[in-house]
Amino acid sequence: MVTALVLLIMSQYQTKNRKNVLMSYSEANIENCLSVPHRKKLLWPLQRGGAAFVSLKVTDLNGNEFNYQSNGAPLPKGCGLVYSVKTAVKRPFVVKWQIVNTGFEATQAGCLRGGFEDSDIGTCKRKEATAYSGTHFVQCFIIKNGVCVAKSKEFILNIE
Fold it and tell me: In a designed cystine with 149, which of 33, 48, 50, 77 is the match (CB 3.0 to 4.6 A)?
């Protein structure tokens, strides 16, 4: 009886404070996430001054769509993700996406990633899915005439 009561109280405490605990945990691990050895170095010369802004639309397991803020509350596995980028750079340009997974599950699956990938929905969008627990990130780079003329900040994604 006492054990059940303790477990109930702990469960209520964890649920109430879950977001705060997970956010603190995530913030504590962001620097480690960003400096992983499998993150490839930029392949193009960087021209300073350009900006790009990443947004993310999530489709949850029930088919509901919503916008996700960088370093937001953890998402469950199995969600659909569509990243978009906005920039003031005039076309034509190419968008390269750097998707970096971290953590035990991604390591075990051989899917740490960290290289550069093309948009796969039009010019400025990339489709992904939540598959591995941990803190991951996406960054995009605007390439024009062989030069990186704009880049985004790292967009942090937390997965349960």
Answer: 50
